Here is the input.
Amino acid sequence: MRVALTFNMKRGETDEPQEPPGKNYSDAQAEWDAPETIDAVQKALSERHEVLPIDAGGDAYGELQKSRPDIVFNIAEGSYGPCREGYIPSILEHLKIPYTASDPLTLSLCLDKARTKEILSYHGLPTSRFRVVNDGDFSFNSLHYPLMVKPLYEGSSIGIRNNSLVNTHQEMRDQVLWLFNNYNEPALVEEFLPGREFTVAIIGNGSEARALPIVEILFDSLPAGVNPIYSYEAKWIWDQNSNPLKIFECPAKLSGELQGEIESACLRAYNILRCRDWCRIDVRLDGSGRPHIIELNPLPGILPCPEDNSCFPKAARAAGMSYNQLINAVLDIACRRNGLM
Here is the structure.
């Protein structure tokens, strides 16, 4: 089978452009994949298929229209805007070419943290109380401190720093204004959940969707005195593959009851948002130990090196799957969904 691989590749210091178009902040490329990841995915797919790599930053439409692959393995995060993850899937919908993972609507909804939380709340799934701030109105007073302040449309911990956890109105205001000035997008302000944090890899569709072994984030592995959040510093600065933190435990040590609650909530969220093929879902416990959905990541990070502490491959390894087996399992799931197997 002819499989196209669509991606956005991180650029080196001497490459152009330095940031995605329209973005000029230092962590702008954090969502994009390194050449090593793209090579690893291509190598995995090449075990069984002819693979055509296509950089989404180039003439992706022209290349896809000309090549007409049987299916596309899509990991392209897009360049700019709240609907950027839907760019390649929208092209593929127009060209009637099957592809892996979720459709443009689901990708865009999940990237908008507020819309995700609104939908989950409507369906009765717990998620922390929040407000969206898109101007200078800080008059709301119904949220209880401490609060988390995040950019509304970013992933990969972009814009979430150690000081994103705030304890006063002034700290909240300062952090929101910092986001406005540096990211030029609305801020999500939500009540902080003080309990344990987990991430859950989901694979499959419909009744066959299942959770892989749950990953727990161990905040006591972070430098002394920092906040217990998975910030940009924790993900990209303090945790390096040359000196990885022991920040994850997989499988997480959980009672059978709590594991069941977390998996049930994540599978419900997965189906409510109409995710397809795979997704990673972040969960945190409140002060009473009840799981709350933080966000859904329908284009999960898949760094191949175990020392890189990438959660989806880590969960797959705990389930007995190699990296190559994971990549091909996702492709097979998408092929069955599209009637290609």
Observations:
- Residues 61 and 94 are 10 Å apart (CA to CA).
- The two ends are 11 Å apart (CA to CA).
- Confidence is low (pLDDT under 50) at residues 13-18.
- Residues 256-272 form the longest helix (17 residues).
